[in-house]
Amino acid sequence: MDLMNVILLDAVANAGGAVGAGLGAIGAGIGIGQIGKGALEAIARQPEALNDIRANMILTAALVEGAALFAIIVGFLAMVL
Amino acid sequence: MGPGTVKSLLVAVFSLFSCIIFAQGQPGENPDEAKKTFDANEVIFGHIKDAHEFHFFSYKDKNGEEHHATIPLPVILYSPKKGWSFFMSSKFHHGEENYEGYSLMTDKKIEEIKKENEKEGKKYHAGQIVAVNEHGEMDKSVKVYDLSLTRNVVQMLIALTLLVWIMLAIAKKYKKGDGVLSAPKGGQGLLEPVIIFIKDEVAKPNLGPKYQKYLPYILTVFFFILINNIVGLIPGTANVTGNIAFTFVLAVISFIVILASSNKHYWKHIFWPPVPHWIKPILIPVEILGVFTKPFALMIRLFANMVAGHILIICLVSLIFIIGALNAYAGWGTSIFAIGFTIFIYFIEILVAFLQAYIFANLTAVFIGQAFEGGHDDVDHHEDAVIV
After folding, report:
1. Is the domain defined by A23-80 classed in CATH 1.20.20.10?
2. How many CB pairs under 8 A join A and B?
3. How far is B289 from chain A (nearest CA, A)?
């Protein structure tokens, strides 16, 4: 099995893209999990700030998800290009 | 999460990578068999991409002929050699016939080109219109500019008309005097809290006293993205906000508004930031890049969120057909779970539609506010509450 032929196959590009997207999802999971943890702790400390905390939590979660979606787009490009 | 778990995770990832090189498939084994089974790739990309018609479903009748339930759309082409052409996309008969010297590329035709020349085949995509000569062969010398009313354009125009109609109708009610000194009624009750929310939570905190100048743009961006997201969720419609050209234009318009509202202080901070001298060579390129990456992130965030949502929904429904192709009873069983999960994802997608419109509007307001805010150099600063 020629190593160069193996590396240049489309299958490896697809696999690399999929693994990259999966790693991006790990990043999103860790990030949004920490946002949720911080938000729940803040609500527990001061329940009357619930609405402010909830709004900020959702905003920050969308920003973190934006970064994770970069990884998914790059994984997708690895498949297509 | 100590260092031990991170190490185990890295070992797992790299050992998986080394397994992939041995797990390659053999291409081109059963080309005929592949046609009979469900082609998920074609279905998914057919729904995500733009097309010259609204395609609802296809079926095979008793004779084995394929029928497509579609709404054809106008095709508008310009080529320097042949001039303008206007016709309906139904004349192409889904790529089977050529019309007026133009031909619609289909997956089948691209496969045939790829068999002869792989690189040539990659230049074309399904749905592209190319020029052909009298014998039906592709004429590569003729350049074709495709300015058709594709389904993304038509759906965007429909959503636009809907938005303008709703807004003007409710504005007329306010002009008549309903809801100004009394409680808002009907449609006013739907829109007024949303507009006040944008004014109080997005515009005023970020733009300060100058918020009224930018409020029309922020509201327009929010409602335009929102209505295109919502209309795109209806089954059978096109994927407008998941089109990178659409989000690119929105990001460029935001970029222009941000640049137009920037002041000298902003550019001074980018090109000569007040940091120690040894940091300046690192920070100045980062700041210059930052001017472009912020609207770029706006574009990618909206595009990726919408496309990912649509692909997820289509994949879940395609799962039924993929498993059904293996075994009909398993297909029926999968359909219960898949449809239940799809409905759940649909609710999340409605939330994402609102959220992404809000995030786009909010970040635009934040960037505009950053562009014209003054310095924080005053030391003895009595922070009076800003009553706007």
Report:
1. yes
2. 48
3. 17
